[in-house]
Specification:
Layout: E1 8-12, H1 17-28, E2 32-37, H2 40-52, E3 56-61, H3 67-81, E4 86-89, H4 104-132, E5 135-140, H5 153-172, E6 178-185, H6 199-212, H7 216-228, E7 237-240
Parallel strand pairs: 1-2, 1-4, 2-3, 4-5, 5-6, 6-7
Length: 246
Amino acid sequence: MSTLEGKVVAITGASSGIGEATARELAARGAAVVLGARRTDRLAAVVTRIRAAGGRAEMLDVDVTKRADLERLVAAAVDRFGRLDVLVANAGVARIAPVGDLDVDSWDAMIDVNLRGVLHGIAAALPVFREQGSGHLVTTVSTSGLKIVPAQAVYAGTKNAVRTLLEALRQESTDGVLRTTSISPGFVRTELVDYVADPAQRAQAQEAMAALGIAPEAVARAIAFAIEQPDDVEIGDLTIRPARQG
């Protein structure tokens, strides 16, 4: 029996990519998953697929920039399954452009989703974890925050802000109640770069992703590995990238 059997996991950004793969992987290992995303048509398809395979899944329309939506997600997990063991804060957006372009709207979008969205999740989940006496917060950051490159300054900045946030939270939570894990994927075959505004930069990013990208299922397995550890073991950081990525 998997050590995920009976655990309840909420996942944001679960309608595609890493979020969808994680939902399917964890459900296959016996976890009940509560999925949040804005694209509810695609989210419904994920839930249908999980249930058809014998898994347990629920869904909500969730915009992580809205604090109330994260509160509803956590409440739905507790109401439906009696508890929440893990929150996977996966929702994210990437806008690639030099800082000098002064695309302030894109900066705001990345800050709101990538950073504020994680904070909203912490604010919603932490009281439940404290009341239960246990809980696990998993965030999807990025190798962009480990190797800084041009045109990704603000994106990398938001990811490194989350990395810093989780390390501070870890140090504040050494009473054994809360575990934290930051997952740093490299090139993964997802839709993340499909929304880059500049056509040339978008094409370049898509080409690199197609040539180098690993399957999102690889990241999902890494998340499952971190969650499956005994309660007294914390996997603080995991970097998972293609073997050929520089």
